[in-house]
Model the fold of this input.
Amino acid sequence: MIQGVSFNPYRKYQNPQKHQLPSRAEIEQDLELLSKKVRNVRAYSSLNGIGQIPELAAKFGLSVTAGAWLDKRNEMNQLELNSLIRNARKYGAIERLIVGNEVLLRDDMGIQELMGYLRRVRQETHLPVSTAEPWHVWLEHPELVRVVDFIAVHLLPYWEGVPAEAAITHVMRRYREIKHAYPGKPILIAEVGWPSAGNKNLLANASLTNQANFIRNFLQLAEEEYLDYFLMEAYDQPWKTGLEGTVGGYWGMFDANRNQKYPLTGAVYEYPTWEMQAIISCIVASLPLLWFLFRCRNIRLPGRILFSILIQSAISLFIWSAFLPENIPLNYFAWSAWLILLPAQVLLLMIMLVNGFEFTELLWRARLKWRAPRTALENATNLPLVSLHLAICNEPPEIVKNTLNSLAALKYPHLEVLVVDNNTRNPATWQPVQAYCQQLGSRFRFFTLGKWPGYKAGALNFALRETNPAAEIIGVVDSDYQVNSDWLRRLIPYFKRARVGFVQAPQDNRAWQHDRFKTMINWEYAGFFHIGMVHRDQRNAIIQHGTMTLIRRAALQKLGGWSEWCICEDAELGLRLMKEGYESVYVDEPLGHGLTPESFTGYRRQRFRWVYGAVQILKAHWRSLLPWSKDGLTLAQRYHFVAGWLPWFGDALHLIFTYLALGWTMGLLLLPEFFGFPFTIFLLPTIWMFVFKMAHSWFLYQAKVPCNIWQRLGAGVAGMALTHVIALGIIKGLITNGTPFLRTPKAENKPALLQGILMAGEELILLCLLWSSAIATVAVFGIEHPEANLWMGLLLVQSTPYIAAFALAMTNAFPTRETISAKILPVPAVSVT
Done:
């Protein structure tokens, strides 16, 4: 039998602060349940129905230590005292009286006023009288000891941040300090206990097993030392979370539904259903594990082991998170956080598995499929007529002339070039190009359309209508690209296979070698072409990128040409070609070189366009990407189209959670009684996901991209710097249906320092807010608070993309001395026969 427990009879959805009070029958039920396990109960008030406790307790043989709740309301204090005195005279179940609970700690009144109340109760009753305060208040006020009959001390090591394993020792040390300071004075430990759930307090961890250990050890010690005590407390009180934070509701030996949390003997499990959860996770993981091990037998053993671990870890973490409400009591805010974080964690785990599969297959596959082996194609005969289309809009004439020179130098006999200018306002921009086309000969035809709908796709559709009827292959070249002379002879022979719809080689760049900013973004581009595209090519699922793409004309016309509603018309066309059953060929060999954007602004705008266009494609073709769709795509093609764009949605989630983290930090700082630190089970995977993503990129670059360690680092910074603009592209793409075509400037002037700061202005603001939140968290909670440190770590991880963006913008603003001038010098015309 337990000697005593603190008793608050409020049920799960009751709150005395809102005057939501238990009925007499509910109080009676609670006391009947307690009478089977305890001898005494402590009541904190004598009003609002709590004054019935002494009468009802007597029915079950329980003794009562009755209390009067005191605070700053003088009128209510008088009512409490009157009721306490009346009950003390009336009910024999009352053994002791406690006037006020931690009123000095809360600074609700001065010590002289409290001592006056104590003297009055002592004079008007015959029972022992005291007030309840923490141990340090009693040590600070010896004058208070002189007006009480016993010392009612609160010993709650959790609130002092004491680790659970040292809690009992701490309690006895404080108890002995009081006993030594006031020898001969009876001591009642009026509150002693440990919470079963909630946030950490410094080194103190609230958990079910910690509570069970504390209570068991204390009860044993109390019997050995003959301690007078009340355990804190009988039943969980969810309403207290508004006063004490998340732990406030979980000090009870019984939960709010009146179920005993743990036995006082035998085994105690923090998560009683953990075995069932483990079994479920193994069963759920077995299906993808078996599929992977059966279908990917050509992956070497280390890769199979690694990806199997990733599958099991991801599913186990999801099952654990899904069962969180079963494992941990949640308040309204915690439920809201769980409902938001669980779907977000699913997305993060999917991204991890996608990246892990790419990582595993590219590094440990015994033999990569080479779907386009190099043969004697250069010697092929009967080559078809190729029509090359060059769409330009406000392009510097000298850049276009250089491109035309490279096309004129192609070693390919059957060729025409159509240059289509659209939406260029100043005739002085396109007229030099028109004159140069005339100079290059009859194979080069120039068209100017003025204001024209459909952006680049509209211009390409016009060129398609003007194409020589005999042309079998359509090629698209960007205005800044200089192609290798063997480009067409190298790739056109692949069209001898009737099912080949388009042929693609990687994009590459020039004039970046002596510019730090351009070097960084050049190698960031290279990752997609030497890693992502190579992986996609294993299953005929490459993305068609418009630059230097070659398309079967019959297939293009069958599909109705280019889609003018989409600003990524090239990728959209590639998807439609695959839905029609056409194959692609990817030759991982750069056969031409273009220009990188000159500024961080141009780089951002280009990526925004790609992302927005991808969302347009997903919104238009989402039904075709469902696993059960019968629109002509293979399951592997659907996988690669979804998996390829999934990380961009992770970036959108990053931005959303940045704003949520900032708002949650405000809640932690300003409303700690309602906001607790989010669950560790969601925070740690987010941090580890960041680490995994960096490792994934680093090792794949090391294995597949021909760059040195500093170039790999630069590429990583450049890619991370785009996180914010990618997030904006995803979010805007989801909520809008159309956006102006954002042309990527190729020859902008270098920005000044102020322009460099403004280029990353949004990212810089978010960076400052995140760092300020991290600093404020540490300042308020201290560096010894584990959950505060974890939260601070998450805020700093969240800030890394914004650091990268600012760093890249500053790199762009401060070019190296060796930087090549942005001015594009004219190249002498190629001799044309």
About this structure: The longest strand covers residues 94-101. The radius of gyration is 37 Å. Residues 396 and 660 are 44 Å apart (CA to CA).
